[in-house]
């Protein structure tokens, strides 16, 4: 046995001597530069690339297996130059490599320039059509061995240092008119070993162009300690400090500094990765948190995220953006956010989410399926004064006087419904707010429930409580088939119209309980199509109420008496008008709104209305009629018996652009008929007196009627 070991040892020693001797002889008698033509030929035949080797090649075999390359250019035949390298040096200690370890001297890569170009026709300079592809058959992917699948034998690294300097990469897309440059790429490291932290630094500048105009410049720098455990597939980054300086058109000349600090670790065998002690800052925005990911195939994400209180207005200024104009200049200055990360596998979940917007607190949850992109969002708030966030009121420029109103040009036929966007929605949203102040109105218990999947958007709840009443609305938008279909339901019940008008218009002229139910459908993608396809019905009721500040019945009564000279003026006593039973039904037929049963009772007067409003034609033909009835509530004005039961109509007819004074006019034929009847009776009396001596009473009356018929035509 000892003899065998001696023989084996002698053979190994002899082999090492041969290798050393061979390396020395190769270095002394074989110059690699003599093989440049053959290297270039093989590169073209095997790889389809053209090599230009302008510098020297050098190699060594023992004890360092090394190579040195200088001034090389690479391109595909007939294509712009792809890459250029000034110098590369790398050497591996051969005895260490034979023992399964990698021990290198310093790795140097200097002056690497990579030019990627995409032409107008989509062709590129980094690939040739068909290069490297088999002409027939299918390409079989080799099945990795068990050793390869498990990562193979662990390799111990020992590299003195790594230096990559003067790196430059450019990408030009002629079709898109864009260009991206990565310049002055530099990376340096200390001694790289496995199982211990080693320092490394990286920096570069990047520029993005559009149509030869520079849009964005990025200055980046990174440094950290890196840990590699190849045997256990564990990798760590400690004390990561990275900074970005962003300048360009999006920031209007401002430079935005972004910083990220964190510790990062990963265990590939256990499929875990974590980001701990993260701190991300951009201008005055600071976010912090910890994130852990397990099971990479269907990741489970846990941790926490916090955004410290910041001013949105200050952030916008730092980003070179205009501040948001608000009625209250003190809003948008105290915003913060925090949440816990967690949820089902393959889901990004924000639990116990809290958002502070100035004085308003929101709480809820958010979840997004990473595979399908489906979103589930739940957010509930307490009290929000939206008027503070609205833009300040501005004086409207005075309109030039015009002798006639400009006629509307009609409804646009351009699509306004974002069909593709709605088809892509995959979400369920539940929003709520206890109290909302907006445009002087106060709403409470707001609810908005929406589901949108596969082109069907169902806003099942658009609800609120307001002014002792309720709003219960829903909208369905279906874009699964063309044309788009809409179904809208509105149910407003018990709204105290007086309180509403006080807040909305600062007026106290009307009281009553307002109710309405509406159910309409429409279809199309343009305003024109939607308006022309409105179909459905609506019902409006106000069972009781009062018009304050004027006694309408008395005023109209006196007007009738004065105009017809049929009575005397009376002093107004009650300066209000109660009304009852205001109700009406409206029918929508292809955009035409029809109403034939409008009715309300104003004290001793009944108001009726009927007619059509055509939204497509933008005109109306509506008739309002006032009828003096037997006193319904109280007597405030006495009228001639001839006026009771007579309908006094007002005809409203014309286009939406017609001046109001010309749109509605009273029907004077009724007054003419009353005056005609009065004159007829007065004349009949006079004739009766003159015909008093001719025959009996019946004969005199008949003769008078015949004479009047000839005079008045009836």
TrEMBL record:
| Keywords (A to Z) from UniProt | Membrane, Transmembrane, Transmembrane helix
The UniProt transmembrane annotation reads 7-30
Per the record's keyword annotation, is Transmembrane included, yes or no?
yes
Q: Which organism does this record belong to?
A: Amphritea pacifica
- Does the keyword Transmembrane belong to this entry? yes
Residue ranges annotated for the AsmA domain, each copy included? 1-598
UniProt name for this protein? AsmA family protein
